Amino acid sequence: MQVDLRILRYDPERDKKPHWESYKVESGPMDRVLDLLHTVKWEQDGTLTFRRSCAHGVCGSDAMLINGRNRLACKIRIDQLGKKISVAPLPGFAVVKDLVVDMEDFFAKYRSVQPYQIDERQMPARERLQSPEDRARYDDTTKCIMCAACTSSCPSFWAKDSYVGPAAIVNAHRFIFDSRDEGSDERLEILADKDGVWRCRTIFNCTEACPRGIDITRAILEVSGAIVDRRI
Amino acid sequence: MIDRQPLSRQMVTHEYEAVIVGAGGAGLYAALELARTGVKTAVLTKLYPTRSHTGAAQGGICAALGNHEEDHWEWHMFDTVKGGDYLVDQDAAEVLAREAIDTVIELEHLGLPFNRTPEGKIDQRRFGGHTRNYGEAPVRRSCFAADRTGHMILQTLYQQCIKHGVRFFDEYHVVDLLIDGGLTRGVVAYRIADGELQVFRSGAVLLATGGFGRIYRITSNAHALTGDGVSLAYRRGVPLEDMEFYQFHPTGIVGIGILLSEAARGEGGYLRNGKGERFMERYAPTLMELAPRDMISRAIYMEIREGRGVDGQDFVHLDLTHLGREVIDAKLPDITEFARVYQGIEPITQLVPITPTAHYAMGGVPTDIEARVVVDERNTVLPGLYAAGECACVSVHGANRLGTNSLIDILVFGRRAGRSMAQDVAGGGLPDVAMDASDPVREELETLRTRARGENVAHIRAELADAMMERCGVFRTEEGLGRLTGEIRALRQRYRNAAIDDRGRVYNTDLLEARELGYLLDCAEATVAAARARTESRGGHYREDHPERDDVEWLKHSLVYKTDGDPEIRYKPVTITRFEPKPRTY
């Protein structure tokens, strides 16, 4: 079938502002939006620019705004979208070119929450023991692939871009609720800041946007709950 | 259009004691090791580190922890050697199997969220070719984190690198390797954001760029896996070892090649042909679906050829329906989602159509067991150059890699690379780099960027991938490989006249895809030359015109050297310590 594909294009070396371009692309129902983008780039216009790598939803490169929702281009099929498809870069980030946005600030915020295990105790000769229940406690937030679909869909982030954002909080959650970690005091301190968890208004956009199915709003609430508990 | 601003001639130079190219598991472990010893290190990646293809690895990491049942590193070493059809260098396999244990424990200490046994130990499951007591029966050796073990390795190592202050250069595409006067002097990188070429001066460069599965049409590999490091070394006179051995993984999604992990069979999944038979009982009666991948991929094609594909078509079924929802949701959540998203199949109740998919290069840049690159039959070291992970050939995988051994390879030898580099740079200064070091690659890129009209890059790439799939896949013959040699030569000729649409400096992926096609052509050329020369069948290299293994003539590694004409092939012996070659049955 033929798909009418509209793409928001922007080349900083040529364009003053972004503009829509239309393409007609042949597609099968099981094809994904990434396949359409490749068809345009390889057959019609090599200047079309986007990030992609694994092409099956695990590397997080190709999050973009597809028919009004943040999704991974490699994980959404044409038969889920219909014959008219619009693609634009992730909202809330500066556009570098076409569908490529500037990710530097996003990764800087991730780094700011100390997203690594802190445990300076002497390690045993073998593995530390962790019960399956303790392991399950933070399982959901280990799935994050840093695609930025959540942060980019968050109205609180749009309103105030100094907000650390859902993705960074998810990655802090992964350690705060890991029974092996000893660094939560510092992490919770960072997230209790004015640009931390309190900016979340529980709008649930992040949870809906997550291509990994992480219950992000719940994770944020668990972190804010931990901050409150700690103060009591 | 062509008058747009040329690439800057101004040379930005960085200085680091160690430079790592690639931020997958091998590169990150080396970086962590260097950071812990205080060596000034830069990691360059053409992606962001969390996008590296290590993150796509699913099933697990084998280490003889013995958390469920008796196990020994000697058994793991034996399985690795036998799985590799005895082309494995046994000193390297011993290092792999011994250090696997300590490495997995260290990863747990670094925070990796392994699944746990009821007692809280690291959980382990079965995997293809991993056995107890030298082949008796499958053993639970694969340590895992659901079916996203690679994702958790990548995350854990990246997190630790952040903690230790490693300097990352994200979206820097390395386009040349500086080797002059027999010494490694650094790399040239293209900053994707603005097209600026920058020189990284360093006396210790690690290639950790992963594989080159994109030479094949149906592959589990990411688009980024174009053999950059392998090709750059090849162009600089480093030979490529054992390139004829390429692994096809048995269970790829039909038509697109996305991988459904061997963990599906490790947890008890079956393979069934069109008649519903578990056909592996004809090919590997002891291990059945847990036989090594080369044997299963061949078996699938044999079933299809003999008319026992599903409904006469080119695929067979993976059957998980007897496992139950609980096991599938807890242990195989991601891959069952792949079946749902990409095939519209519900694996809890339906059979999943699969075919083999190009997956892993056993060959690559030759190294010794300290990850130092060696350049000839006598294993002469090229000072300052290192390689680890899929781009390297140690060789621990020989003619066929066992499942999970790629993850343990990147960890064990990534860490070893970091240690070797730290040792080698201690007390030394930085090598000199010529002022015009980036000129040759600048000229190549400028020519490609500004050519007015010419061949479409995507078409050349597609023709290459189709031809490789057809004639250098699971089955090979002299006739097919001979024809393929000519086809690749012709594609190379067309590539010299390739033209692109995007003349810009900012984020020019059109230019980089064209550059990457050159790397793929190099990898394909070396693969076909080695495959054509090897007139026997061993592991992943199966010659229909020479179907038997021939240890008298062919128990040796190939080394392919680039020349102006056809590649030159030399050979070096296999290191055999504990296990004499035997017929390989399962």
Describe this structure in words.
- The complex is a heterodimer of chains A (232) and B (586).
- Chain A is α+β, with helices and mostly antiparallel strands.
- Chain A has two domains: 100 residues, Roll (Ubiquitin-like (UB roll)); 128 residues, Fumarate Reductase Iron-sulfur Protein, Chain B, domain 2 (Orthogonal Bundle), CATH 1.10.1060.
- Chain A is built from nine helices and seven strands.
- In chain A, the strands form two sheets. Chain A has a five-stranded mixed beta sheet with strand order 2-1-5-3-4. A two-stranded antiparallel ribbon of chain A has the order 6-7.
- The longest helix of chain A has 16 residues.
- Chain A is elongated and about 60 Å long.
- The radius of gyration of chain B is 23 Å and the shape is globular.
- Helices cover 33% and strands 20% of the residues of chain B.
- In chain B, strands 7-3-2-11-19-18 form a six-stranded mixed beta sheet, with helices on one face. In chain B, strands 1-10-9-8 form a four-stranded mixed beta sheet.
- Chain B folds into three domains: 298 residues, FAD/NAD(P)-binding domain (3-Layer(bba) Sandwich); 97 residues, Alpha-Beta Complex (Flavocytochrome C3, Chain A, domain 1); 114 residues, Fumarate reductase/succinate dehydrogenase flavoprotein-like, C-terminal domain (Methane Monooxygenase Hydroxylase, Chain G, domain 1, Up-down Bundle).
- The longest helix of chain B has 25 residues.
- The mean pLDDT of chain B is 96.
